[in-house]
């Protein structure tokens, strides 16, 4: 139960955790609280415009009872004039934080990147590279000055330089998420990047291999005779896994007995684990690769037993040998989805295999080839 007495060095000294609170007998609302561990803090309780506030004046040891009393008098005088001292204190704190993290570069390095790293350490380097390559011109901007108008001008320049609409959409979502976090953390009051609408993108144009291209790709794989590349390409072709998921795959994630592999939630873009059955070619590919690479650690690893970092040279060489153009490694995922749909697999099953959270994303991958559409309409012709 709270006790009453004039707050002085003597009365503070006599406080025990059981007292919990000491109300001053001279200044209305001035009081002391003591925690179960004995920490003592000074407060001023006041009401203003129907709002009740408990304003913290300071901690005992950092200020004296006399200093707390003088501060309580000053703040109570401000409240009497209609000033909400708690709101003023909050704004001062925001201003201080803004001064510390005033530019985008400082905010990213001191706040945003550490937060992202704690949530998903495997993607932090990719995010850092994306910010550095895309938003270099904004690094010296005050984060409050990164407006929709500035981003619109930036986007127009990117488009004029040949950057694709889908790419700028992804980049803008990146900085939107960053500024939304700054709002949530109280560094800025708001941002208006919601005004920057996503550009319309034709998602029906998805690249996949024709029968002839796939045959040439297989012939080139055999001629190059690069074991890891052949295993990587055939596994991508038969599972639809993303590049990052493949390079993060461990032998512990593969059950050759039951012919299924698991994409761990930490490596999946959706954040959810998924299980992919191994068809005959995928199973045989992994079974053969296991004998060559060993079945411990990462499935695709470098000489230091770390995940394979890159294979751009070998991939480019493969496409050249196969005489295939305008085809990325990620397009093997499109190819996988397209083959499933052309084999009359229902879209929801395709969605589950690809690891999409909703069917809308699957529609982008699961299109039908023109010759299959022609065959369909000819059935009633």
Could you explain the architecture of this structure?
This protein has 16 helices and 8 strands. It has 381 residues and is α+β, with helices and mostly antiparallel strands. The strands form 2 sheets. Strands 1-2-3-4-5 form a 5-stranded mixed sheet, with helices on one face. Strands 6-7-8 form a 3-stranded antiparallel sheet, with no helix packed on it. The N and C termini lie far apart (89 Å).
* Spatial order of the strands forming the largest sheet: 1-2-3-4-5
Question: Rg, please?
Answer: 31 Å
Strand content: 5-15%
Helix content: 40-55%
Distance between the termini: 89 Å
Give the SSE map.
Elements: E1 3-4, H1 9-13, E2 21-23, E3 30-34, E4 40-48, E5 51-59, H2 65-80, H3 85-100, H4 104-119, H5 124-134, H6 148-160, H7 165-184, H8 211-224, H9 227-239, H10 243-248, E6 254-255, E7 260-263, E8 274-277, H11 280-293, H12 312-322, H13 331-342, H14 347-354, H15 359-365, H16 370-378
Parallel strand pairs: 1-2
Antiparallel strand pairs: 2-3, 3-4, 4-5, 6-7, 7-8
Helix pairs in contact: 8-12, 9-11, 9-13, 14-15
Task: Please tag this protein with its features.
3-stranded antiparallel sheet; elongated; 10% strand; hpI Integrase, Chain A; alpha+beta; 16 helices; DNA recombination; 5-stranded mixed sheet; 381 residues; Double Stranded RNA Binding Domain
Concise description?
This protein is an alpha+beta fold. 50% of the residues lie in helices and 10% in strands.
